[in-house]
Design goal:
By secondary structure, the chain is mainly alpha-helical. It contains five helices and four strands. Helix 2 crosses helix 4 and helix 3 crosses helix 4.
Length: 142
Amino acid sequence: MSEIPDRLNIDRKDRELYNKLDSEEILKFKDNGGTRTRKEQFIFAMAYGFKLESRKPLDSMEGFVLAKDLRPDDEALINAIAIYNTKSIEILSDQKEVFKIAEEYAHAGIILLDSKIKSTSFVSYERELEKTLHEMFQKIKL
């Protein structure tokens, strides 16, 4: 039986990229009732990496999001990505591997997100993001 991890990790070098997100209002570090968490940034980076089908192994690991701070919908998204990635529901019996998949998508996603923000004005990126989210919502509404 696999050890159950208590946190999601990032690559140490990515911390600077997450810190840069604080300069963008839409991706700012959130304060959840006195508890500061970067969970939303991690989830966004993970989803962005997944959307772009880009996953990258971490070179060095650093704790970033405590598992206890994940809400049921966060866990559902992380689990869905792991199931999709492995094409097997059996992956859910290995939480360590589920987290590894999420971490690798977030690692690729934060790098791609930083690159995208650098290459466009943030206003146009924010509009592009809004358009993408609207299109995704329309597909779900089918």
